[in-house]
Amino acid sequence: MDENPSRIPGRIKELREILEISAMDIAGDAGIPLETYAKYESGDLDIPISALYRIANRLGTDATVLITGEEAKMVNAAVCRKGKGVQVERYPGYEFSSLAYNFKGRTMEPLLVFLDSSRPPAAQVSHSGQEFNYILEGRVRVTIGKAEYVLSQGDSIYFDAHLPHGQSAVDGPAQFITIIQE
Fold this sequence. Notes:
Elements: H1 8-18, H2 23-30, H3 34-42, H4 49-58, H5 63-68, E1 86-91, E2 94-98, E3 108-115, E4 130-144, E5 147-151, E6 156-160, E7 165-181
């Protein structure tokens, strides 16, 4: 299994070309501006997890194929042992581990997220669906639009993911579970 996130854009482009689908069609069907999609496919712009799922859906595959290069295999249950999730560094200071990568046809994405407070926070993102964050350790600043919430271990937040949002560690490293529902 190849979990290198820099390979995701190449996998998308390769599969799109094999299926003889234009970039314009993928972008339109996934609800992504063509210019943005082109930057995703070239690797010039990080692909939000929700966009990755819409692209995978349009390509008729599971997002696991785009992330790892392998098909998800489990249909009834998928166990993810401690430290064994598919790890992706989305950008410096924000790394996540997919906890259900091997479940075929999943409709939500549970992720274990690691934040490094020594790195500047990334730009806010928005995507379809809803999102839930549960803080496991450290303190996390969750920004939703202009509102900021500082959460500590055991705190949680549930929000409309269409709203621009982002998370950053406060005063040291932090770890939280996020569940993204499309």
